[in-house]
Predict the structure.
Amino acid sequence: MNSDSKPETHVTIEKRRNGRWAFVLRRGAVVYPATGQFTSQLQAHAAGQAALKALENKR
């Protein structure tokens, strides 16, 4: 699979009802469930980017 045919991937940060932050990974049409109970938006974003990088390296 070449890089032109890879699905678009990105991270979305969202605030949970309890005031904590989580990240959601999206890869093409696949949406992975919200992950994390981070105290800050920055922590959630950094963890989401690391998870996205690991997912991309796995494929």
